[in-house]
Specification:
Length: about 375
């Protein structure tokens, strides 16, 4: 079989570079056809030199970009819809990944989705793009929890699944009291105990907004209602999630934390290929595995996000847009850590009541949420 053509959107990020490492180990199966990045031309040039893609795009070229590269935000959709692309790895961070997810699915591609934000914002519209596109459009999660759930469900029918239990590391503030969390610095929030990731998702893991995004992501991916999706804190990040079946049996997927496995599985699903994990699983070394309930009082973003998911309409897009804008302000030092959930709550209160008739409605809600948060802190 010819190697499958891969487009990596966000190739310079944490998931993008991990994807390139995975593909380099499986050159007989996959080859890089297209790469896109936001602005890191130096790294993009290095990646281009080693993988020889036919298409390279950079959103903001700057002085050191290659003249042959495509430029501007349109490069994501261009890369994602090329005829020689079989799988699009969407490793862009944030709402910026939405149009490429939609376009790739409509064009009949497999989307290996790390960019959970596009499913949270686009929800039903993303699923519709799968169903009503050219055919062959397929959404396969890269997120470790959702990869675990997909692996546990396997070919079982949805009617046999009774509950999903997503694991959460608890983030760097798991053992901090509310008073200390209120004074957390950017450095504190970026100090994740078990995963090394981009800055935005690392802050989301500290507020637990990431887990709310993942609950909404699971709701859409596996068509499970919110009252049958639970979250449990599991500080070791060894069990990547559980699935409970109707007869009471519970399956889990385990492994030392690495994104390379879920990335590879998103490329090969439903098959598996031989790979050499950096750390072979060792139950004794992984021991003990512990679990605790989430303390929603200290991490209000989690409940706010799940409630936005239940509300539906534009609410998930408002939640995500407000969170992205607040995290951006937090990372620049403009607002404090507790201002992030405060901003989300304020935006949801003001903007979440509208229905989502079209993708334009959710895009408008995303923009309105960002503006709301900017205005909220303007006088500071
Ligand atoms: P990152 O910040 O390391 O990388 C983001 C990539 O997107 C970069 O290549 C950047 O150039 C590109 N990008 C940023 N803004 C863009 C824009 N406006 N337009 C086009 N491209 C843009 O982020 P990451 O940690 O790799 O996360 C990427 C996605 O994967 C996020 O949605 C995150 O939630 C998800 N995810 C990440 C991990 C992880 O371990 N890092 C795990 C699960 C899910
Ligand atoms: Mg995850």
């Amino acid at each position: 079989m010819r190697p499958r053509g891969i487009a990596i959107l966000g190739s310079t990020g944490s998931i993008g570079t991990a994807t390139l490492r995975v593909i380099a180990r499986h050159a007989d199966q996959f080859h890089v056809v297209a790469l896109t990045a936001f602005g890191n031309a130096t790294l993009l040039r290095e990646q281009t030199a080693s993988t020889h893609p036919r298409y390279v795009g950079i959103v903001t070229p700057g002085g050191d970009a290659d003249r042959a590269w495509a430029t501007g935000a349109e490069c994501l959709v261009e890369a994602a819809t090329r005829p020689d692309v079989d799988v699009v790895v969407n490793a862009v961070v944030g709402a910026a990944g939405l149009q490429a997810t939609l376009a790739a699915l409509r064009a009949g591609k497999r989307v290996a989705l790390a960019n959970k934000e596009s499913l949270v914002i686009g929800g039903e519209f993303v699923l519709r793009a799968c169903r009503e596109g050219r055919g062959g459009g397929e959404l396969v999660p890269v997120d470790s929890e959702h990869s675990a759930i997909m692996q546990c469900i396997g070919a079982r029918p949805e009617s046999e699944v009774s509950r999903l239990i997503l694991t959460a590391s608890g983030g760097p503030f798991r053992e901090w009291d509310a008073e200390r969390i209120a004074k957390a610095t950017v450095q504190d929030a970026l100090n994740h105990p078990t995963w090394t990731m981009g800055r935005k998702i690392t802050v989301d893991s500290a507020t637990l907004a990431n887990k709310a995004l993942e609950v909404i992501e699971a709701h859409y991916l596996f068509d499970v209602p919110y009252d049958r999706i639970d979250v449990v804190v599991h500080p070791q990040s060894i069990i990547h999630s559980f699935v409970e079946f109707v007869d009471g049996s519970v399956l889990a997927q385990l492994g030392f934390p690495t994104m390379e496995l879920p990335i590879l599985y998103a490329l090969t699903h439903p098959g598996r290929v031989a790979d050499a994990p950096a750390h072979r699983f060792d139950p004794a070394a992984a021991s003990p595995l512990t679990f605790e309930p989430v303390d929603v009082g200290r991490f209000p973003s989690l409940a706010l996000g799940i409630q936005a998911g239940r509300t539906g309409g534009v609410a998930p897009a408002v939640f995500n847009g407000a969170n992205e804008q607040a995290v951006c302000l937090f990372l620049t030092g403009a607002i404090g850590f507790p201002d992030v959930p405060r901003a989300i709550e304020s935006a949801l209160g003001a903007l979440s009541g509208l229905a989502a008739e079209s993708i334009d409605d959710v895009v408008a809600a995303d923009a309105a949420a960002r503006l709301h948060v900017t205005e909220l802190f303007r006088e500071r």
